[in-house]
Write a structure and sequence with these properties.
about 625 residues, alpha+beta, 8-stranded mixed beta sheet, 4-stranded antiparallel beta sheet, disordered N terminus, binds flavin-adenine dinucleotide
């Protein structure tokens, strides 16, 4: 698949000969832009739009088709303190909620920018044509979500991501952006320590493309495919994390992988598919096999005012002198996920190892509850009807934790989103770290994409304007091409094959670095990862470069192994339980870890190195906001 607009790239021919040389000497395309954006989800599209608006040339690369990025799957909504449903909401409350949800490990400046700028970004999206659900008086409607003090998530039923991508795509296409679809970046190209572009191959015919750029924005999403049970699509193999790491970028907070409490658990073929928090936001309650609503069992002291009233009257909870509507099912995701696991371990789980999520109960309180559920949760209704034969307007769903999101990622400067160590490389969205700390609040990802996608695009364009073109040596390109082609040259029969190896990796991460990790398991995981790495490096695949998903999988494995090692190393180092990181052998939070980030970087010997860094003190004005908000 070439450029969408038919952009003519000059072809650079390496010649013609046989065997490996034949492959190596295959021609590649060269494309040059001021800014290259890798990834066309919400973050990438928003960055590309902003850069193009600044008048620089922009190339946008995506592994799948435009419009198919993961963002399209987002369901529940985008968090922004618009105060349309509860006028007590404002950026300060949103900031404090985000910091509390992140257990104060967040990059506080990012949390501040995010809370301040999210409302403007959402209104802008609406001005570009996004059609959100409305309040009776015609304003953007907002729903409750875990950890948010007030109804804050602007939404379109449970298809918010689809509307967001549609809008950004429609808007972006008119900004003169060149789109390269079904093209996978396999290596960042450098000019010294500066990022100067990327090598990529098209997934159809395996032809190489060299992208030269003055600035590169990484927006490749998450790492969920490193685990067996996940809500993430096939694209989420941690490519951006790994590409940036191997180019010298720092990774931070990698121990914090979010296990969403409610994924499907049955039938096995759909295990892990997300059941949006929107179900709980619309009144869904969790019960164990005894029919008991177990989320009231140990509500954290902060939320002790929670009561289980009817939906019409609203659920109440009290923090300090503030009262809001929220049931205990909408405590933060880390807490709810652990509670479900506890019920299962105590033998009170559902038949297939989860808990019951019941939205049908609202029929006792709401007229036409069936119509209401179908209107507010249309995708969930169809998902369960078609995949599990369950009518959620009448019966409870069976749900359990699923790997969902990674808080960790490329370490960036908060205002500009430039990598802390690689000039010219910017990152935004799920592959960047900082905003969410130890645990992300639902809805804060979509607003993250908009706020920091815009910022990354703006600063990347600025960087491109201030810097001349970088130089990429031919030898570097040759080496990157050789590395990518190496699996095709090796004996395919020597090991189990790339899919099986990926499965082994996923099983390992699920068992030993999943929702509860312990010292012994993590130590074993590190050793086993080294073995998997050795096997992956020797892995061969059959066939040619054309239409060869086996070859693509061997290349994805390189990224998956890198991010898995980062997760395990950081999880082993953090000897406490905090947010999404749960260590049964260190059950409590340790105050000594309360101000520490773990930073990973490639050492001079090529090995992954880890260090602790103390988070800079939160400025007084922001500290006061946190205190005031309770
Ligand atoms: P993505 O949207 O995943 O885009 C990544 C892009 O990078 C894709 O275009 C991909 O093709 C490309 N790419 C990846 N690797 C390469 C490579 N090597 N070369 C070239 N291109 C590459 N968050 C919320 O805030 N609210 C919600 O309601 C919500 N619901 C969710 C529901 C589901 C089912 C899931 C899984 C997540 C949900 N999230 C939600 C989280 C949120 O959707 C994601 O965190 C967010 O969409 C990530 O956006 P992104 O732009 O960073 O990456």
């Amino acid at each position: 698949m070439g450029c969408v607009r038919g952009y003519l790239c000059p072809l650079v021919c390496y010649g013609d000969s046989g065997g490996l040389e034949d492959l190596l000497m295959a021609q590649h395309q060269e494309c040059e832009y001021d800014v290259v954006v890798i990834g066309a989800g919400g973050a990438g599209l928003r960055a590309a739009i902003e850069a193009a608006t600044k008048g620089v040339s922009v190339g946008l690369i995506c592994k799948s088709l435009l419009g198919k990025a993961h963002t399209v799957m987002a369901e529940g909504g985008v968090a922004a303190a618009l105060a349309n449903v509860d006028d007590r909401d404002n950026w300060k409350v949103h900031f404090a909620d985000t910091m509390r949800g992140g257990h104060y490990l967040n990059a506080w400046r990012m949390a501040e920018l995010h809370a301040k700028e999210a409302p403007e970004r959402v209104r802008e999206l609406e001005a570009w044509g996004a059609l959100m659900d409305r309040t009776p008086d015609g304003r953007i409607n907002q729903r409750n979500f875990g950890g948010h003090a007030y109804p804050r998530l602007a939404h379109v039923g449970d298809r918010t991501g689809l509307e967001m991508i549609r809008t950004l795509q429609d808007h972006g296409i008119h900004e003169g952006i060149d789109v390269h679809m079904e093209v996978t970046v396999s290596k960042l190209l450098m000019d010294g320590s500066r990022c100067a572009g990327a090598l990529a191959y098209d997934r159809e015919l395996g032809r190489f493309k060299v992208f030269k750029a003055k600035a590169v924005v990484m927006a490749t999403g998450g790492i969920g495919r490193a685990f067996l049970v996940t809500s993430n699509s096939w694209e989420y193999t941690g490519d951006g994390h790994a590409l940036a790491y191997h180019a010298g970028a720092e990774l931070v907070d990698m121990e914090f992988v979010q296990f969403h409490p409610t994924g499907m658990v049955w039938p096995p073929s759909v295990r892990g598919i997300l059941v949006t928090e929107g179900v709980r936001g619309e009144g869904g309650i969790l019960k164990n096999s005894e029919g008991r609503r177990f989320m009231f069992d140990d509500v954290p002291a902060l939320y002790k005012g929670s009561t289980a009233d009817t939906p019409e009257e609203g659920w109440r909870y009290v923090v300090g002198d503030r009262e809001a509507r929220r049931p205990p099912e909408l405590l933060t995701r880390d807490h709810v996920a652990r509670k479900i696991v506890k019920e299962v371990q105590a033998g009170r789980g559902s038949p297939h190892g989860g808990a019951f999520l019941d939205i049908a109960w609202i029929q006792e309180h709401i007229k036409d509850s069936e119509g209401h559920i179908k209107k507010k949760l249309p995708s969930m209704y169809h998902q369960f009807k078609e995949l599990a034969g369950i009518d959620i307007t009448k019966e409870p769903m069976e749900v359990g934790p699923t790997t969902h999101y990674v808080m960790g990622g490329i370490r960036v400067e908060p205002d500009s989103q430039m990598s802390t160590t690689v000039p010219g490389l910017f990152a935004a969205g799920e592959c960047a770290a900082g905003l969410h700390g130890a645990n992300r609040l639902g809805g804060n990802s979509l607003s993250d994409l908009l706020v920091f996608g815009k910022r990354a695009g703006e600063y990347a364009a600025d960087f491109a304007g201030k810097n001349t073109s970088a130089h990429i040596q031919d030898e570097q390109i040759d080496l990157a091409v050789r590395e990518a082609l190496a699996p095709l040259e090796r004996d395919p029969g020597a090991d189990v094959g790339p899919y099986r190896l990926q499965y082994e990796l996923q099983q390992l991460m699920q068992d030993k670095a999943g929702i509860a990790r312990e010292e012994d398991g993590l130590g074993e995981a590190l050793n086993e990862l080294q073995q998997l790495k050795t096997r992956a490096q020797a892995m061969g695949v059959g066939g040619s470069r054309e239409y060869n998903p086996g070859w693509h999988t061997t290349l994805d494995l390189h990224s998956l192994l890198t991010v898995s090692e980062a997760v395990v190393m950081a999880a082993q180092a953090r000897k406490e339980s905090r947010g999404a990181h749960s260590r049964p052998d260190y059950l409590d939070k340790d105050p000594d870890w309360g101000t520490v980030n773990l930073v990973l970087q490639k050492g001079h010997d090529g090995e992954m190195e880890l260090r602790k860094e103390v988070i800079p003190e939160i400025p007084e004005d922001l500290q006061n906001i946190i205190k005031e908000q309770g």
